[in-house]
Amino acid sequence: MTLLSVNINKIAVLRESRGGRHPCPLEFARLSVAAGARGITVHPRPDRRHISAEDVLAIAAALPAGVEFNIEGNPFAAPRPGYPGLLALAQATRPAQVTFVPDGDGQITSDHGFDPTALPDDLAAQVAAFRALGARVSLFVDPGTTALQPIRDCGATRIEIYTGPYAEAHARGEAAAALAAARRSAEAAQALGLGVNAGHDLSQYNLDDFLAGVPGVLEVSIGHALVAEALIEGWASTIGRYRAITGG
Has 170 been annotated as catalytic? Predict the structure, then answer.
């Protein structure tokens, strides 16, 4: 079984595009759990472009027991007004999992992983600080990465495979090589006792093939595609409700 963690970031993007409170990330986290999701993922960034520190605190407080809370972020991003830092957020919320990503401040989305052969010198200390809070630590890695011993040595217990290249290849009907690269990373991790997560551009249309081709994936984080698909699949019924109100 693979745990589905619903990434709420895109809901916050919609809110921030207009300002105000709607749509509400907390409400959608609750809807996700009510629909059966067993995990919620957020990725607060220092520039507060979507999920804010306040969202992180509110969602963490609302999740029922048994639902995993996963916070993604760069542990090396300095605190600043409105963003207390990844460690401070973890101290306040005690997530089950923290996923380290090497994002820069201006990066639109996570589009590359850590290079295990060139990890930051103090990464082990960062991992230890989060694990001391009871959080599992996962590191984002590129598909095809197999030299994963340094990740295990730094104390992380999982990797998350970046699946953007796989999703792009799948859409072209050319997924075999990208799938094989992801599988190599998964097998290398599992051989070291590391758990395997996956995420980025996974969707209803490519997820089955990915899970069949990469056995043993423990968790997938899905947000952008899930929101886009929900807009389509729920759009007609919502318009129907408005027509019932307006009569025309």
Answer: no
